[in-house]
Task: structure prediction
Amino acid sequence: MPYRPTALTRKNAADKRAALLRAARALVAADGFRAATVAAIAARGQASVGSVYSHFDSRDLLLAEVFRSAASHELAVVRDAVADTGQPATDRLGDLIRVFGGRALQGRRMAWALLFEPVNPAVEAERLTYRRSYTEITEQIVRSGQERGEFLPQDTGLAASAVLGAISEALVGWLRPESPPPLPQAQADVVDGIRLFCLRALTPPVPAPPVPPGTGAGSARRPHRQDRRVGP
Result:
């Protein structure tokens, strides 16, 4: 008689699979994808190596699922922070940078793994999807700002990609695993600096205030002829 899984055995299998995923994600958060070997995942999940392979076809696919789970959570947090509730697009973009940058600096090891760590092709494919999702969110904010006259007219997709590139490149040095953790004030300064840079790139320049008559650089008092010394 062929074996047929029961509701209980299916639940036990799902629970074990979830436990292995949690174990792998904890390893990645602590030391990156390279630390999440099958043996380490099995040990942390209190399972055998064979059990890992009974739930996942390969380590690469397991880590791709870990990436998808962690990235989806971060993406959901940012989506909530920048939801369009009628506020200015400049505020929404500032919130995106604040939440994305702030969370990356607070969870530096996981952020490095999600953004920069060399990974296998299966994980890299998930990373590309992750980046596209952020580009779409940013592009929607840029388009909204253009429609309201807050942002300069330009290619929205290119502008969104440039903003995300600026954020990533500004953070990379701070997120390196060998770099010392930044102090809270340094984190705030970094995020604020990125925000100012991106807003300056997107918003029209503020016109200089008009110069009142008689106060310009060319209005300095010129000496009259009688003020000049003539002869000894």
